[in-house]
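[audit] Reproducing an earlier prediction to check determinism. Same input, same settings, fresh worker. If the tokens differ from the archived copy the diff job will pick it up downstream; this log only records the rerun itself.
[audit] input (107 residues):
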Amino acid sequence: MKPMPTDLPEFLRQLFWDVNFNALEWQTDRDLIVRRILQAGNWSAIRWLRSTWGDERLRDWLQVHAGGRLSPRQLRYWALVLDLPAQEVDRWIAQAKNNPWGRRSQI
């Protein structure tokens, strides 16, 4: 396993418009960084994350975080890419739909 770089690549800056990008550190802000890239990252950001952290760690992260608050569409995509168990992903999606924040777009 490669160690994570200490500085994030500049092309990720646009994903973190709401935080001080220069203060982000992989060790302390990993969940924010991973979640943001999985939710809104472009192809370059996704390639960077997959090549530096690896699919196995991404799969583990999603399982530990029960889908990581990704949308059902995003979860379906990552389930295919990372070969996540379909039943587990279905459960995450059901939980998200039962959450008031998950229902806000179903009105």
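[audit] rerun output stored. Observation attached for the diff report: The mean pLDDT is 89.
[audit] end
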